[in-house]
Design a protein that fits this description.
Pfam families: Polysacc_deac_1. Its cofactor is Co(2+). GO terms for molecular function: hydrolase activity, acting on carbon-nitrogen (but not peptide) bonds; metal ion binding. Keywords: Carbohydrate metabolism, Cobalt, Hydrolase, Metal-binding, Signal. This is NodB homology domain-containing protein. The chain has about 290 residues and is α/β, with parallel strands linked by helices. It has one domain: Alpha-Beta Barrel (TIM Barrel), CATH 3.20.20.370. Helices cover about 30% and strands about 15% of the residues. Strands 3, 4, 5, 9, 10 and 11 form a six-stranded parallel beta sheet that branches. Helix 1 runs parallel beside helix 6. The chain starts with a strand and ends with a helix. The structure holds zinc ion. Zinc ion binds next to loops.
Length: about 290
């Protein structure tokens, strides 16, 4: 038994931010976009509390299943409510693959499964699919960029690598502060990389990043905001492919549907051919069953 992920008109694009090309820099001066990769994890709720108490909006590049944390859309994992809180608190949720596989080392089928499995998981939690994506370790060759373009993704890199994961973040503060202080908010803007799976980042570095940026006169915003892209463009409806504001979306808008193993293409109620994706890599086959036990 397998299931299909109903994806219609995935080539539908909207907004002014390019799709399927490297985006390493913000376009709005005076902005710093704090990004947190690889979560949610044990410390993410604490980070959300910190961001809220400091009135900061950030961007989370979410991984569906890595580091032994369990599937984000398995109700027993507890991660679904954390991801929904990200939306409720005004943060941006983006995809960072299903299980953090190197997309350059992956086969084409594995790469697409990494994209689609996380869409299934995030859609079952939020009722929408993100339009922003960061490849693990930002490794993405021409085939990978082509895939991400065809799936309708903005591919976000960064221009401040804080290296918060290295040696317990010993150099992170100095890397971040040096870059910001050597430039002016009147003439620069930044996308900063950190990780909410790192306790140092949540317990020490995040507050430092907030205070340092603000002390130098920068505004802290999401990646979408720093690219001048309105929130409605940060997500798409999984059925129509159109822009859809996550804050108004219904959870469990659409479920993966079980189908016979030899029926790969079906027609929807409008008689249009769907792209159906058989997802069976990286544990995807058990995803539905686990999420809907
Ligand atoms: Zn990562």
């Amino acid at each position: 038994m397998r299931y299909r992920h109903r994806i219609l008109r995935r080539t539908r694009i909207f907004g002014n931010v390019p799709y399927g090309v490297d985006i390493s820099h913000c376009s709005v001066k005076g902005k710093v976009a704090l990004t947190f990769d690889d979560g949610p994890y044990l410390y993410t709720t604490e980070l959300l509390d910190l961001l809220k108490s400091n009135n900061v909006r950030a961007t989370f590049f979410v991984v569906g299943n890595n580091g032994g944390k369990g599937h984000i859309n398995d109700p027993s994992s507890g991660y679904g409510p954390i991801i929904r809180r990200m939306i409720a608190d005004g943060h941006q949720v983006a995809s960072h693959t299903w299980s953090h596989q190197d997309l350059n080392a992956a086969t084409a089928e594995q790469r697409r499964a990494q994209i689609i499995n996380n869409e299934i998981a995030l859609n079952s939690i939020l009722g929408v699919i993100p339009t922003y994506f960061r490849p693990p370790n930002t490794r993405c060759g021409p085939d990978c960029y082509n895939d991400l373009k065809s799936f309708g993704y903005h591919v976000v890199n960064y221009d401040i690598d804080t290296r918060d994961w290295q040696d317990s973040g010993v150099n992170a503060k100095s890397i971040y502060q040096t870059i910001l202080s050597q430039h002016s908010p009147a003439s620069s803007q930044w996308i900063s990389l950190a990780h909410d799976v790192q306790p140092y980042t949540v317990h020490q570095f995040a507050k430092f990043m907030i205070d340092t940026a603000r002390g130098l006169g920068y505004d802290l915003v999401t990646v979408g905001d720093c690219l001048g892209d309105p929130p409605v463009n940060w997500y798409r409806d999984p059925v129509t492919g159109q822009a859809r504001d996550a804050r108004g979306a219904s959870v469990h808008l659409i479920q993966p549907e079980l189908e016979s193993a030899n029926n790969n293409n079906t027609r929807d109620e409008r008689g249009e051919t769907e792209r159906c994706c058989n997802v069976d890599a990286s544990g995807g086959r058990e995803l539905w069953a686990r999420a809907h036990e």
